[in-house]
Amino acid sequence: MTDHHHHSSLGIVSLLIAVFGAVFLAGLVIAASIIATSAPVESEGALQGISLVGVELLFLMALQLVAAGMGIASLRRPGERRLLGLLGTVTSTMVIALAMVLALAGYLA
How do the residues of the chain divide into helix, strand and coil, expressed in percent and rounded to 5? Predict the structure, then answer.
């Protein structure tokens, strides 16, 4: 590629993973609230459902760290547009922060 102003593939992948993560987190919040409201507090099903949400949350966090890393890597590459890498890094960081706030507030854990 002779054009030095092409979008970074790392930046594109970073942004896609981050956006997927944001949607996935929204789904987790909805699932956790359905589990919490539909099942009695003492039942085993609710606990299993919530622990499953916890595992998915850890998976989500790991994925977002990968997205942030790719975004940062794309920002460091010379001669490529940085917009998508920046968006991917910012989005994944926001998803991680939001997931941590929700987990600490007790919505997901």
Answer: 80, 0, 20
